[in-house]
Amino acid sequence: MRKIVFVSLLVVLAVLLSACGGSASMPMKEATSAPAQESAASKDVTIVVTSNPSPATTGDVEVLLTITDKDGNPIEGAKVDVNAEHPSMAGMGMSGQATEQGGGKYSIKASFSDSGQWMLTVYVRKDSLDYKEEIEFEIQ
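RE: above sequence
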């Protein structure tokens, strides 16, 4: 009987460890670089992410987005939604709408509870423009 319980516990432990282990991750990019499959010149929108404080740390952070079109002109008057997820921590995330600051600059305040790599998904919508970009964001 002990042997069956012991083997059962080992199987459960193995399943839990494999479920909690690293998962296949999709290729991510730096906050200010173009996606690997596109050159910067072919993109309709460029998003540069900075933060206050810089570098971003756990706790309250203002995420600053500078959004320009393919010619480098600021995109003003857009609806900018931001989702932040911690890829290695399921269920840890937040979302909200960024506030326009003028000149193609937008900001959103967030509270990052854990350090590491976070994934920002930024949606930019204005007139016929409906753009989405995933950006890796480091929290120290």
